[in-house]
Design goal:
Blueprint: H1 3-10, H2 13-39, H3 41-72, H4 78-109, H5 121-143, H6 147-171, H7 176-185, H8 188-198, H9 205-244, H10 246-282, H11 287-311, H12 313-321, H13 330-354, H14 358-383, H15 385-409, H16 415-420
Helix pairs in contact: 2-3, 2-6, 2-10, 3-5, 3-9, 3-10, 4-5, 4-9, 5-6, 5-7, 5-8, 6-8, 9-10, 9-14, 9-15, 10-11, 10-13, 11-13, 13-15, 14-15
């Protein structure tokens, strides 16, 4: 391929978006591996708790701010887009300011709850706030079809972050507080560049009020659905940190990050499958047969990776985090079964999306979240970390079975087709 053709290919918007996703996923994986080895089991568990809180707030931000922006922005004319983008970033800053105030008040009101996190309250909160602001800017640039800018701000942060953490880890003493400060400060250059590119101008109070009113009206069900989806998948993980301590949470989160590389592949499969499935459904063809073919092909990619991670579980954990983590190798075996169940549920998830059956999508997560809330304490206190793993498996099993039953009753995917998977 000629140089000019290569430049043209890699400047393609789809290629830039893919590169950005690979960069973010790869950097997140590398950063967590580095911190798991440098901080040790217990301190890495505390860092994982901060990241879980960050992802929880991100799900709220996506449902109430960025997710709505991605849908609403294309429908405005050019002038309205400029006003909407400008007013929304001020709304985002207000959201983050209120979040910070609530967090600081909670720390002052019940310091005993955050006693072990006192040295990292400020850098941890700062890293969460700046992460959320950068994610907002990234989603805005992607929505505006400016993927190069999204890639640049992600590259600036992730490269600086990995270099700084690696340098301190090799030539100094990396503790949790210093790691949080590094993570927080490396967001500042990219956020600054992003805001400069966005050019929000001066705040217009009337426009900001109008934007807040619009998002409030649109975000109700989306926010509830996002919280349920997050809760059904993460409640047992959060509960593990609360009842079993930071070390157990650290081991569980490291194993999840290792398997998290499969999430990129699963997401890519779903992103390809959904539009193709929608086209097949619109054409009146056999959607179930197509989903079965996709599922079988997915097995060929995923199952060998699951087997490798299971067979070499101890070696992988030792390589990723060190000798202290090898005692938790059974987590790797359990996650292999959980990911196989997630893979089994993909055809049903796609079928629900194609048929716009959002009610049942929501209900599935409602049932799963209810199960998690009702059983987590008993299962964890009875079986410790094994109870967490069993809870994660049963939560996913509830989703798959419920969706399969609904689709069978609606004659969208026959039960015999499901069992043949």
């Amino acid at each position: 391929m000629k140089p000019l053709e290569m430049i043209k290919k890699f400047s393609n918007p789809k290629m830039l978006m893919l590169t950005d996703q690979v960069l973010v996923s790869g950097a997140s994986f590398a950063t967590n591996i580095l911190l798991a080895r440098s901080l040790g089991l217990s301190e890495y568990g505390k860092f994982s708790a901060i990241i879980l809180l960050q992802m929880f707030i991100l799900s709220m931000q996506q449902a109430s701010i960025t997710g709505i922006f991605q849908v609403m922005f294309p429908g405005f004319d050019q002038k309205a887009r400029i006003r909407y983008s400008a007013s929304l970033i001020f709304s985002e800053v207000f959201f983050l300011l209120m979040l910070s105030i609530i967090a600081l008040i909670a720390n002052l009101a019940v310091p005993v709850v955050f006693a072990s996190y006192q040295p990292v309250i400020i850098p941890g909160l700062l890293s969460i706030v700046l992460f959320l602001l950068q994610d907002y800017l990234r989603k805005v640039f992607l929505t505006k079809e400016q993927p190069a800018k999204a890639l640049w701000i992600d590259a600036i942060t992730n490269i600086l972050q990995m270099l700084a953490l690696a340098f301190v880890s090799i030539f100094g003493k990396l503790d949790l507080a210093l790691a949080c400060w590094i993570v927080a400060l490396t967001f500042i250059p990219s956020v600054t560049v992003g805001v400069i590119w966005l050019k929000p101008g001066k705040p217009d109070i009337s426009e900001i009020k109008s934007t807040v009113k619009l998002h409030k009206a649109k975000s109700g069900w989306l926010l509830l659905s996002a919280l349920l989806q997050w809760g059904s998948g993460n409640f047992f993980v959060v509960a593990a940190g609360w009842w079993l301590g930071a070390a157990a949470l650290g081991a569980l989160r490291l194993a999840q990050y290792i398997y998290g590389l499969l999430n990129v592949l699963l997401q890519a499969i779903e992103n390809y499958t959904v539009p193709k499935a929608a086209s097949i459904h619109a054409g009146g063809k056999d959607l179930g047969a197509y989903l079965k073919i996709v599922f079988k092909k997915s097995l060929l990619y995923i199952v060998p990776l699951l087997l490798l991670l299971s067979v070499f579980a101890k070696q992988v954990l030792q390589l990723a985090g060190g000798a202290d983590y090898t005692q938790y190798s059974y987590i790797m075996y359990a996650l292999a079964f959980i990911y196989l169940l997630i893979l089994t549920g993909n055809p049903f998830r796609v079928a629900l999306r194609v048929h716009f059956m959002n009610k049942y999508y929501f209900t599935g997560y409602l049932i799963a979240a209810g199960f998690s809330i009702c059983t987590a304490r008993w299962m964890i206190l009875t079986w410790n970390l094994n109870g967490v793993l069993a809870g994660l498996f049963l939560t996913q099993l509830i989703l798959v079975c419920y969706w399969a039953i609904i689709l069978t009753r609606k004659n969208i995917i026959a039960w015999k087709l499901f069992t043949s998977f």
